[in-house]
Amino acid sequence: MSIHKPVWFSNDTVMVSTAPTCGLTKGGRLLPLVDPATGKRIQTEDPDTGALVDEINDQLLSDMKALVAGDATDTLRFIPVGEVSLRTAVPAYYDRRFDEYFEDSIGVGPLKGFKSATIGQLIEDGVLTVRGGHGSPSQDQRVGDVPYIKVSDLRAGLVNINATNRIPRIVAEKQFWKGEASGLRAFDIMCPERTSKNIGDFCVLMPGQEQLVVTKEVIILRPGPAANFDPFYLLWALTLKIVRDQWKRIVFMQTNREDVGKRYLEIRIPIAPDTETAADVSQHFRDYFLTLADARSNLNNYLVSSSQHHFFVSGVERDAVDVNDLIVEAGLEAVAEE
């Protein structure tokens, strides 16, 4: 018996819908369509009774109707069979709208003269270096002085140290750092890799916070030896909307938590044509974080000299330093001179 093939069927492509709704809530109830301008439910006339009823938010059904009619939608596309893998059999992964918008933005307007590359390519070329966190100490080990950083401590662009999550230095050195220091540097760029909705939101490790134990579920990036930019340009690039939106495609749910695996290496970022341009476009980021570092150092000077206060600012626990020393420490002398 022959099987009917719909007109849209192809042996060479796979139809993928990335519709975000299917008419049902997580609890199995009908999902009403809400007007984002008013926050009110949109109503339509019931064809049988004529009564007004809530319209259902079912974009998957809209995609299927468009498929039958031979129409196109933003969330319906055909992917070549060779590009589909069972290891990435998640519809969102094949939604290339944000990648396409990124490519259309490179080399024009504010990014005229810029090129682009994936994080993976930049690591291969020595432009970026990447490492993971150290590990996760058990609850009974959290009785010392070295801060332990969880994913939830990376918020709003900064690393927020929880005074109740600290471990003995001997445990940090022997079990997690494998040496006398953490391997972290001031102004390293850190991002959750698993378990949190803020995957793709990068934070800056401030001076004074270098000696931490960081959970493995964190990505730590810094400019490599071949880079023509500093950490502040890297943060500028990673926080562009055209870059940030790409993370929506690579974040998968595994069991009960989000995960990016090694797919974050596919994220593309703009590359400035020269050091001067990189420093110019990221100047506001540089000014903010260096000013913040200077203010933290000044506060530390007071706290050390006073000894009457609880150290309530994360990381203000080091000996007094000058902001110029911080610039040298982070390898930003050339940028500072400009």
Q: What are the key terms here?
A:
single chain; Adenine-n6-DNA-methyltransferase TaqI, Chain A, domain 2; four-stranded antiparallel beta sheet; globular
Topology:
Layout: E1 13-17, E2 43-45, E3 52-54, H1 59-69, E4 76-80, H2 97-105, E5 115-118, H3 119-124, E6 128-132, E7 146-149, E8 154-155, E9 158-159, E10 166-167, H4 169-177, E11 189-192, E12 203-204, E13 213-214, E14 218-223, H5 231-238, H6 241-244, H7 247-250, E15 252-254, E16 257-259, E17 268-271, H8 275-281, H9 283-306, H10 323-329, H11 333-337
Parallel strand pairs: 7-13
Antiparallel strand pairs: 1-4, 2-3, 5-17, 6-14, 7-10, 8-9, 11-12, 11-14, 15-16
Order of helices and strands: EEEHEHEHEEEEEHEEEEHHHEEEHHHH
CATH secondary-structure class of the largest domain: Alpha Beta
In the predicted model, the low-confidence regions spanning at least 5 consecutive residues are none
The secondary-structure class comes to alpha+beta
In total, how many domains does the architecture comprise? 2
Query: Strand fraction band?
Result: 15-25%
Mean pLDDT over the residues: 86
- Assign an overall shape: globular
Radius of gyration: 25 Å
End-to-end distance: 77 Å
What is the name of the CATH architecture of the largest domain? Alpha-Beta Complex
Count the strands?
17
Spatially, the strands of the biggest sheet line up as 6-14-11-12
What's the story with the biggest beta sheet?
4 strands, antiparallel
Total helical segments: 11
Helix content: 25-40%
In the CATH hierarchy, the third-tier topology of the largest domain is known as Adenine-n6-DNA-methyltransferase TaqI, Chain A, domain 2
CATH superfamily of the largest domain: DNA methylase specificity domains
Protein name: Type I restriction modification DNA specificity domain-containing protein
Keywords: DNA-binding, Restriction system
InterPro entries: Restrct_endonuc_typeI_TRD_sf
GO molecular function, one term: DNA binding
